[in-house]
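RETRY 2/3 - previous attempt timed out on the joint model. Re-submitting the same 555-residue input unchanged.
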Amino acid sequence: MKTKYLIIGNSAAAIGGVQGIREVDKRSKIVLVADEPYSTYSRPLISYWLEGRVDREHMVYRNPDFYRQYGVDTLLGTKVTAIDPTRHIATTDDGKEITYEELLIATGSHPFVPPIEGKDQAKNAFTFTTFDDAQGVKKALTPDAKVVIMGGGLIGLKAAEALIDHVKSLTIVDLADRVMPSVLDSEVAQVMQQHLEDLGMVLKLKTSIKRVGNMSVTLSDGAKLPYDILIFAVGTRPNQALAEAAGIDCERGILTNESQLTSAADVYAAGDCTQSHDISADVDRNIAILPNAFMQGETAGINMAGGQAVFDKAFPVNSMGIKDFYLLTAGSTEGQPQIVNTPDGIRKFYIADDELKGYMILGECQRAGIYTDLIRQKTKLSTVDWNSLAEAPKLMAFDVSVRKADLAQAH
Amino acid sequence: MKRVYVNEEWCLGCHLCEFNCGFANSGETSMIKAYHREQRPLSRIRVEDGDDIHFAVNCRHCKEPLCVKGCITGALSVEDGVIKIDQDQCIGCRTCIAMCPYGCLVLSHNHTMLKCELCLENSCGEPACVTGCPNRAIVYEERG
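RETRY 2/3 succeeded.
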């Protein structure tokens, strides 16, 4: 098989790739290969589906007609087993060879499960990143179920939200001293923890699972906890094995430049499988969030089709609701913290070098994107009325020339 | 394409645009009925008030819309330059709130997101905020 464009993957970065290509090249052939058999769906919606808030039909990330509209030939349920960047060939698990001119690797990430004694023999043990995972949990679900979730990060907490009203008990075990350690500091995590406990969740922090036995886990403090459903939600790792085997440079993710081009000619990478440069902390890291994935994919697609685009504004942005209690975070925890207490929560900013580096907002969060943009643009806070902004996000706090550019010009 | 632009020097801060927006999107035949509902209609345009200056802010319909790119469900999309939201697909996750640089998303009564669709989806046909503005502080026109 021959194609101009080959995309491996079928989630946000891959779809961004398709849309990016079609912004420039309306005609040439696109082949999309993915190991999951499903039309593209929103991975974050698996917890909503499990909770019963979203049906299968509304889990789609693009409507099923998307591939026809965008002229994409799909090979779903097919795994790419090797790529040869020199010969421009990808090999699939059914022995097909696909010759491409431009390749996008958008393989995503996989759940990391620590090497715990007995985990491979464990019954009713799941990870929680795919629709199949969510279906597995649903099958094991009964009103009497005792649930143990290893990992109090975004994935673990969304699984917990989905299950808490449908099970007998739910315990979250995390080695860190707080929930969501990658995006929350201790103080804000404390507020979230109170909310989780009010919902009936049991938190066991600074604790790990030492052993998985017959429908029970043994914790690091020696306690033995029976379970009916065990979910491993410790974190994810980039799917970079294909790229590595092909000799493409990888660290904590596939390395790319700002055009999303890898170290191999005509091979691009985007999304959770890549390493990004986080502008809010000035460090290289894997940022596994959907908006970045889409934007990197779109950037790659435009460049693959001969257009010009760069993505040089990567930083974490997360929005998470747990039973109508909302948390928005962005950026890093570089610099000095500043706290604003609000009627229903807390707002915390991190400031360094006269720039906003990050924020955490628990509770009311309307217009918070104005804060996000300060991080994105590295706006000097001395050029805005920061005291007024910290009180509430508003464009009034910007210089009139900025407002005119925002509101009186096309962009 | 035509968009809504703001002339802040002309804005009186009367907030009429907010009422007209809420009414236009309420589906009611009179403003009185619309605002007599238990849940008052919500405006997709917001007036910011300062000491001497006022101005209205609504969706800029950006050419590079970060809300659309960041939307985790595909509820937000671009159609002929207009950024639209599919209420059936929106789950109210608020990622778009975190993405929009201008703060133009509005939380609805049922926790999904609302945004300006230039009154193309309701019976007005052109932005009710502009039509009702007494001082041409917001206009609907082509600019660069």
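Chain B has a mean pLDDT of 95. Closing ticket.
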